[in-house]
Amino acid sequence: MATKNLTHDDFAGHVAGDGIVFVDFWAAWCGPCRAFAPVFEQASEQHPDIVFAKVDTEAQPQLAAEFRITSIPTLMVFRDGIMVYAQPGALRAPQLDQLIQGARDLDMDDVRRQLAERDAQPTV
């Protein structure tokens, strides 16, 4: 499965549903982004049940700003509409494989419970 290019208009529709979505925020001028691209593309081929998407921060500055992208590449992982990972930096294939397995292994009932508990805490 090839990676999808996301825009501000279709981003929410891709990450809001059930399943796992990996999103790579990148730019063409970024050396680490170019180094990570083949690793990301290979993972998309090996895991057709996961959506692998890319956001060009130069073409989508509003989307990058909404997610407060200050360093690229930044990788985000959404599972069942919930962002479960967001970290800048290029990953090597074994690291990405670990992250993929971690996303698969998440107990989403527990994640939702933790989010509900956090949201119920009074703000200071």
Automatic annotation (TrEMBL):
One GO CC annotation: cytosol
Keywords recorded for this protein, A-Z: Disulfide bond, Electron transport, Redox-active center, Transport
PROSITE patterns reported in the protein's UniProt record: THIOREDOXIN_1, THIOREDOXIN_2
GO molecular-function terms, A-Z: protein-disulfide reductase activity
UniProt keyword Disulfide bond present: yes
Domain of life: Bacteria
Residue intervals of the Thioredoxin domain: 1-105
NCBIfam families in UniProt: thioredoxin
PANTHER family per record: GEO12009P1, THIOREDOXIN 2
Family: Belongs to the thioredoxin family.
Name of the protein this chain belongs to: Thioredoxin
Underlying gene: trxA
